[in-house]
Amino acid sequence: MARDAEDTKRRLLEAAANEFAERGIAGARVDRIAAAAAANKALIYSYFGNKEDLFDAVFNALVVDTVEDVPIDADDLPGYAGRLFDHGQEQPQVLRLALWHSLERGGAAMPEAVVAANLGKVEAIAAAQRDGRITDRFPAGELMVLITGLSILGAPDLALTHFDGPEGLAERRRTVVESVRILITKDEK
């Protein structure tokens, strides 16, 4: 029975990720989520509480998965930015859910899983700065925001220019990686 419950939760989370990515929190419907998961709608409330808590569960899981799938390497932040860019291409739901979170929960505190994931990244960057491996012209937290922002804004859905197929996407990736390389390079004195 526990296996069935876990399988149902997994199906609900997958269906909810699709629904929230497409429609946001306000536009999502628990009826559609339950139908897509082939589950009883009452189970959403039983397992997750309400629609907002279900969104948080989906968002937290995707953030944790992203941190595990794309670990930071403070000695190769340009490579990290490239891998984060690639992950965004492979998992567009993550970016969409992050944007929906920002739009619909603007000003709200970030979930603990997101804070914890980013804290580890910021600490890795701060250590690289203390050791003199990368520039300290920007605070570690701001540098992390810049690196993440460059990686995200390179996504075709957010790009301000048109991509010309795979070549255009590859060029955008190269631009993201090189921009981060320039950003972290220590000033010559």
Automatic annotation (TrEMBL):
The keyword tRNA processing does not apply. Keywords: DNA-binding. The keyword DNA-binding applies. GO terms for biological process: regulation of DNA-templated transcription. SUPFAM superfamilies: Homeodomain-like (SSF46689), Tetracyclin repressor-like, C-terminal domain (SSF48498). InterPro entries: Homeodomain-like_sf, HTH-type_TetR-like_transc_reg, HTH_TetR, Sco4008_C, Tet_transcr_reg_TetR-rel_C_sf. GO terms for molecular function: DNA binding. Residues 29-48 bind DNA. Residues 6-66 form the HTH tetR-type domain. It comes from the Bacteria. This is TetR family transcriptional regulator. It comes from Actinoplanes friuliensis DSM 7358.
